[in-house]
Task: inverse folding
């Protein structure tokens, strides 16, 4: 990896529809993906709600942007860290989240999971390892 | 801003993108292409339809490099490259084709 | 005097729900909507507090559950799922509405 590649992490801590943060973060991630950096996304606190499957906004007249998370793999954003404790505190588990995958270019385009459930301690280590953090 | 087709008005933003995705009909693409001095062929329509399907599935207009990769996967390598796509859409396969398809400006095009 | 309390913030991010529960008296109603619906998911600290609250009726707005991908079987027992029309009639039936924002 060349020296001018930095580790960028987007920190998502908000639920999807009550505020604009989640959608704004997703747009910035997609735009920022053009810069060929080492990008990862962290979902903790209420941010874990962004990935809950089966979202259907027809009844509240808002854009359902949950399908856009499926496009992250196309944008080479393949590391989505979800904190285990945040899920558990909210009565959720990995089974409640959308299955998100990417195709690994270095492994004959094998389909792999983008979501990695990590403990709070692991998340702290991953954050420590980043060069730049963007908070939403 | 707006474009007129057979007396019907379609609202667009300052860059010429359709304001309401649901307003789109093939005539919109034809009219926009005419303004750009372009005749739409089956090859153009293949990409325009591909973009509309992409938006339907992911709720975003893909950036040009994402579009190129996705076209290659779906329609074959000979179409999934910038040379082919720029030949069809000289103002940029992301921006111009998305505009014809009634989509917003691509997310991730700078 | 009966009161309809409304909560539209996540109980995990803001103290709105906790404050609401501290002030809601027996005979009153609490309606969770928008991000407030996350307080209705069973098996959390929030639903424990709701279960411990005697004499208060709890409601959650169905369209906001659907928007956020929370299926009805995830909603804790004792919380009634309502539509917009029921929201309006709850507001009309009670003497006043107190919003916890």
Result:
């Amino acid at each position: 990896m060349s020296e001018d590649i930095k580790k960028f992490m987007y920190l998502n801590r908000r639920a999807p529809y009550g505020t604009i943060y989640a959608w704004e973060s997703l747009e910035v991630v997609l735009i920022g993906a053009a810069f060929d950096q080492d990008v990862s996304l962290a979902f903790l606190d209420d941010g874990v709600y962004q990935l809950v499957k089966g979202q259907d906004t027809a009844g509240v007249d808002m854009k359902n942007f949950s399908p856009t998370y499926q496009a992250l793999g196309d944008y080479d954003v393949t590391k989505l860290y979800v904190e285990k404790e945040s899920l558990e505190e909210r009565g959720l588990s990995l089974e409640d989240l959308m299955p998100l995958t990417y195709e690994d270019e270095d492994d004959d385009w094998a389909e792999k999971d983008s979501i990695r459930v990590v403990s709070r301690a692991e998340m702290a280590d991953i954050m420590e390892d980043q060069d730049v953090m963007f908070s939403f | 801003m707006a474009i007129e087709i057979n007396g019907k008005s379609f609202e667009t933003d300052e860059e010429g993108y359709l304001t309401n995705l649901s307003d789109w009909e093939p005539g919109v693409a034809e009219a926009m292409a005419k303004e750009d001095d372009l005749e739409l062929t089956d090859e153009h329509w293949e990409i325009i339809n591909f973009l509309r399907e992409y938006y339907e599935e992911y709720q975003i207009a893909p950036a040009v490099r994402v579009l190129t990769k996705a076209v290659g996967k779906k329609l074959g390598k000979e179409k999934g490259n910038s040379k082919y796509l720029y030949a069809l859409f000289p103002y940029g396969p992301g921006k111009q084709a998305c505009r014809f398809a009634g989509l917003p400006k691509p997310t991730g095009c700078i | 005097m009966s009161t309809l309390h409304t909560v539209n913030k996540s109980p995990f991010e803001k103290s709105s729900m906790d404050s609401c529960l501290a002030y809601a008296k027996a005979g009153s109603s609490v309606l969770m909507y928008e991000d407030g619906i996350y307080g209705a998911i069973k098996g959390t600290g929030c639903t424990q507090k709701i279960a411990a609250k005697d004499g208060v009726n709890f409601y959650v707005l169905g369209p906001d559950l659907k928007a956020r991908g929370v299926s009805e079987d995830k909603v804790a027992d004792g919380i009634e799922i309502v539509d917009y029309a029921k929201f309006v009639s709850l507001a009309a039936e009670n003497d006043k509405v107190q919003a916890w924002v």
Q: What stands out?
A: Residues 42 and 77 of chain C are 8 Å apart (CA to CA). The interface with chain A takes residues 8-10, 12-13, 34-35, 38, 41-45, 47, 62-64, 66-71, 74 of chain C (CB under 8 Å). Strands of chain C lie at 3-7, 29-32, 57-61, 79-82, 96-100.
